[in-house]
Amino acid sequence: MRIMNAVCFVLVVLVISCHGHKKVSGTCSPNLENALFEDLLSMMMKIKGTGKGTNHQDETFSAFSASLTTSKTLGAGEIVKFDKVWTNVNNDYDSSTGIYTAPKPGVFQFSCTVMTPSSKILNVFLWKNDTKTVALYPGQTGYNMGTQNIVLELKKGDKVYIKQWGGGKEIYSGSVYNFSMFSGYLIR
Question: Do both 29 and 91 map to the same domain?
Answer without folding.
Answer: no
